[in-house]
Amino acid sequence: MSRPLAVGVVVAIVYAALAALHVYWAVGGLGLGSAAVIPTDGGRPLGSPSRLATIAVAAALAAASVTVLLRVGLLSGPVPPGWVRAATFVLGAVFILRAIGDFHWVGFFKTVRTTQFAVNDTRFYSPLCVALGLTVLWLASTRIVLPVRPPTS
Q: Are 130 and 138 a contacting pair, CB within 8 Å?
């Protein structure tokens, strides 16, 4: 197994697991970190994502997983390889930008640092975003030789 393929499989599994976690939360699941995944101000959540919004995030994470699998050649589809590569660059950039944050509530450069969300964001969420972002950017920039599939008749 090539290194890009192995890395891609691991990254795709992480995205799929995050998608599954969001589906769990959307259907009312509690626990698994649900109490500290929304930024708070004075103990009040800054937002309350709807089920639909949480499902949308899950769908985006599932699409990220598929994008990575397309990039490393484990899946194939009607999307041209150049588009998949471009989507992979965008995906990596999105996660790097998430890690940088909004300079107030989320990311490494946030000013609010004492809430439970902020602590978790610094310890877990932002580092995960950096790791995913840099890894996906590496996959986007790496030369990947996709297997040639024989034509079907």
A: no
Q: How far apart are CA 48 and CA 3, in angstroms?
A: 40
Closest among 36, 53, 46, 35 to 105, alpha carbons compared:
46
What is this structure's pTM? 0.90
Q: In the beta sheet, which residues pair with residue 44?
A: 41
Q: Phi-psi region for residue 103, left (φ > 0), alpha (ψ -120 to 50) or beta? A: left
Q: How far apart are CA 117 and CA 45, in angstroms?
A: 10
CA dihedral sign, ordered 90, 92, 94, 100: negative
Lookup result for tokens 């990575």: 68
Q: How far apart are CA 136 and CA 91, in angstroms?
A: 7
- What CA–CA distance (Å, rounded) separates 117 from 105? 9
Element (H, E) at 152: none
Per-residue pLDDT tens over the stretch 66-89: 999 999 999 998 999 999 999 999
- Length, in residues, of the chain: 153
